[in-house]
Design goal:
Blueprint (H helix, E strand, L loop, with lengths): L7 E6 L9 E7 L1 H12 L8 H7 L13 H23 L1
């Protein structure tokens, strides 16, 4: 029987005026992951599920920029977030 893995989460922040690349600002497993997701939901921050990317991002220290090798994968997530935000804005304006 396969052991159930703990839920994991990684939070990124990107400030185009201060950062060269997105930074890992929070990460954790189990309860910490649940709290990261809860805070995101309470603040209407989109959440994207990608277990492989989470594993890679979890290796980055907190308050450090992601490595260039992850730019393309994170850019895809950012595109998804921008689309989700635009859809939300359109739905709210109707």
């Amino acid at each position: 029987m396969k052991k159930k893995e703990k839920e994991k989460a990684v939070a990124l922040r990107y400030d185009e005026h201060k950062d060269n690349a997105p930074k890992v600002v929070a990460k954790g497993e189990g309860y910490i992951a649940q709290e990261i997701r809860r805070i995101a939901q309470e603040n209407n921050i989109p959440v994207h599920q990608d277990d492989t990317l989470i594993e890679l991002l979890a290796q980055v220290d907190i308050d450090y920029e992601i490595p260039p090798e992850l730019y393309a994968a994170v850019a895809e997530v950012l595109c998804w977030i921008y689309r989700a935000n635009n859809e939300l804005k359109e739905n709210l304006s109707k």
